[in-house]
Write a structure and sequence with these properties.
4-stranded parallel beta sheet; 5-stranded parallel beta sheet; alpha/beta
Length: about 325
C-alpha cells in the first residue's frame, strides 16, 4: 500500500495572514518531504499566490528555455481544470505537484521564489539544509523583473535565452511605446499582497505612471525595499503602507485624487468613491469572470496588463464608447 504522508502546518487563521500561511505551508512541505539524492538538473519554482494563468506563463518560459523544473505548488490544472466526463470514481483533476517531486526538490540546482513573502521560508530552508541557492524574487511582472528572472535562469542552468522569448519582450516594448501617451504622468494607487503590489509598482514606473499610495495588508521587508528601489530609480516618493490599515490608504487615495487604482476586488467601492477607475489585479478577483486564466507575469502577461491599464483609462475618459462594445 502507498504510504500516507502528513505535513503539519500552522494555519494563518490564528497567526498572520494568508501570505504568511502560504509561506509556512511551502516551508513545511519541503521540510517534511524533501530528501537528498542525486542531482536532478532541475530548478525549483515556488510561485506564490498567482493565477493559474500566471503559472502557465512561467511554464511557457521554462519550456522555451528547455529547462526542467519542479513547481511547488502547481495549481494551473487543478484550480482551472477542464470539465470532462467522469468514467470512474474517484475523480481528481490532473496536474498538481506530486509527492515524489517535492522529495526531489532537495536535489535541484536552485530554488526560484517568485513571491518572496510566499515561499521565501522554504527556499531559505533548502539553502541551509541542502546548500541549494535560493533566488528570492522579484515577481517577474513587467520588463525589468522579467528580464531579471530570465537572465538568472539562463546563468544558473546554462541555457541560452531563445529568440522567441526575445521577440515576446520586443512586442511588450513596442506596445509600451505605442501607448505611452495614455499612461505617461498618470497618478496611480496600488493595493494588494506585498509581492504583487511591489512588482506592479515597478511596472507602473516603467509605463511613466507616478505611484502615489502603495498598500500591502501584510508587513514585509521585501515589499518596502522593492517599492523604494523602483520609485527612487524613477524619482518618485509615494506613501507606502507596509502592513497598514486599508482605511488609511483609502483616505489618502481620495485626498490625492489619483487617476487609476490597481488592486483586487476589495477595491471596487474605494474606486467608486474616489472616482478613479480600477484595474483588477492580484488576489482575490471575484466580481469578474476569467481572471484566473489570465497571465500578468512574463512579457506576454505584461502586454495583457498594459492593454488592461490603457483600455481602463480609455473607458474612463470616453465612457459613451462602452455602449458600442
Amino acid at each position: 500500500r502507498d504510504q500516507v504522508k502528513f505535513v503539519i502546518i500552522h494555519t494563518p487563521s490564528f497567526a498572520g495572514s494568508h501570505v504568511n500561511g502560504y509561506d509556512e505551508a511551502a516551508k513545511s512541505f519541503v521540510k517534511t518531504l524533501a530528501k537528498r539524492r542525486s542531482p536532478n538538473n532541475k530548478v525549483n519554482i515556488i510561485p506564490g499566490m498567482i493565477t493559474p494563468g500566471d503559472i502557465r506563463e512561467i511554464k511557457h518560459i521554462l519550456k522555451l528555455m528547455d529547462i526542467d523544473y519542479i513547481m511547488l505548488f502547481d495549481i494551473s490544472d487543478t484550480l482551472d481544470c477542464p470539465l470532462r466526463p467522469i468514467k470512474q470514481l474517484p475523480y481528481y483533476p490532473k496536474g498538481g505537484t506530486k509527492v515524489e517531486e517535492i522529495i526531489d526538490m532537495a536535489n535541484s540546482m536552485a530554488t526560484f521564489v517568485l513571491c518572496p513573502d510566499e515561499g521565501g521560508a522554504a527556499a531559505s530552508y533548502l539553502a541551509k539544509r541542502y546548500e541549494i541557492p535560493g533566488i528570492i524574487g522579484p515577481l517577474p511582472l513587467g520588463v525589468h523583473n522579467t528580464d531579471k528572472f530570465v537572465k538568472t535562469l539562463s546563468e544558473i542552468t546554462g541555457k541560452p535565452i531563445p529568440e522567441e522569448l526575445k521577440d515576446e519582450r520586443g512586442i511588450l516594448i513596442d506596445a509600451m511605446a505605442d501607448t505611452f501617451h495614455y499612461t505617461m504622468g498618470k497618478r496611480v494607487a496600488i493595493c494588494g499582497d506585498p509581492d504583487i503590489a511591489a512588482a506592479a509598482t515597478r511596472f507602473c514606473c516603467e509605463l511613466g505612471m507616478e505611484p502615489v499610495a502603495i498598500f500591502s495588508g501584510t508587513q514585509s521587508k521585501y515589499f518596502a525595499q522593492e517599492v523604494w528601489a523602483a520609485c527612487e530609480e524613477y524619482g518618485y516618493k509615494p506613501v507606502i503602507f507596509n502592513g497598514g490599515d486599508m482605511f488609511e490608504w483609502e483616505d489618502l487615495v481620495k485626498k490625492e485624487k489619483v487617476d487609476l487604482i490597481l488592486g483586487n476586488s476589495k477595491c471596487v467601492n474605494i474606486s467608486k468613491e474616489a472616482d478613479a477607475p480600477l484595474v483588477r489585479i492580484g488576489f482575490p478577483v471575484y466580481d469578474r469572470v476569467g481572471y484566473q486564466r489570465r497571465a500578468y507575469v512574463g512579457y506576454r502577461g505584461g502586454e495583457f496588463l498594459l492593454s488592461l491599464i490603457v483600455n481602463t483609462i480609455l473607458d474612463a475618459k470616453f465612457p459613451d464608447d462602452r455602449v458600442h462594445q
